[in-house]
Structure formats: structure tokens, C-alpha cells
Design brief:
124 residues, mainly beta, seven-stranded mixed sheet
């Protein structure tokens, strides 16, 4: 089971950009990986998903066209480029890894490893 640590969060004004990183302790080139977020008082929701080969990605409708997920398997690192940020993007962001292909890419129980999260705050 890999250990994950997110970084890159912070405070930004609406319309700004942030790039999140998720560093893994072990080899993640065969893992299915995703970004989730959780705002206060709300359930954790899936944001973006990527397959091991980076050939397939999925995005939540709320972030399509604004966020881009990518991975560097040589560095065991997952990224989330967030552009045109909105106040409603404010949340704790988590990266997650699954050893087998998740039947539902944004179902939290399908993921084995989670990072502690990084806070993103977008002000209007």
C-alpha cells in the first residue's frame, strides 16, 4: 500500500490557478489514481481520475474544461492543474490510489490509499 502526500494548496482569488501535487512513497505506475475534494459540511466528491497509462481520464462536470489531471510515473507523482478557480472550488483536496480498476471511478470505497489532504481556498 503506497503512502500519499499532497502539496500545492493555498489561497487564491477567483479566476486564478493552482497546481496540486501528490507524491507517492512507492511505485504507482500500475495504480489507478484520482483527486477528490471535501468542503465543510459536504460529502467527499470525486474531481478527476486517471488510469495508469494516462490514456483515459474522467472529470466531474463541475470542473470539466478548468481542471487537468496528469501523472509522471517516473516520479511517482500525480498532479492536478486547476485553472479559472471559483469560490465553490474551496475544499480540502485529497489524492487517492487504487490497485485495481475501480468499478466506479468516483466511489471513495474503491480506493485503498489516501493522502492527508491539502486545503484550497478561493476568494471572490
Amino acid at each position: 500500500q503506497v503512502q500519499l502526500v499532497e502539496s500545492g494548496g493555498g489561497s487564491v482569488q477567483a479566476g486564478g490557478s493552482l497546481r496540486l501535487s501528490c507524491a507517492a512513497s512507492g511505485y504507482t505506475d500500475s495504480y489507478y489514481m484520482a483527486w477528490f475534494r471535501q468542503a465543510p459540511g459536504k460529502e467527499r466528491e470525486g474531481v478527476a481520475y486517471i488510469r495508469p497509462s494516462s490514456s483515459i481520464t474522467y472529470y466531474a462536470d463541475s470542473v470539466k474544461g478548468r481542471f487537468t489531471i496528469s501523472r509522471d510515473n517516473a516520479k511517482n507523482t500525480l498532479y492536478l492543474q486547476m485553472d479559472s478557480l471559483k469560490p465553490e472550488d474551496t475544499a480540502m483536496y485529497y489524492c487517492a490510489a487504487a490497485r485495481i480498476s475501480p468499478p466506479y471511478v468516483f466511489r471513495t470505497s474503491d480506493y485503498n490509499s489516501w493522502g492527508p489532504g491539502t486545503q484550497v481556498t478561493v476568494s471572490s
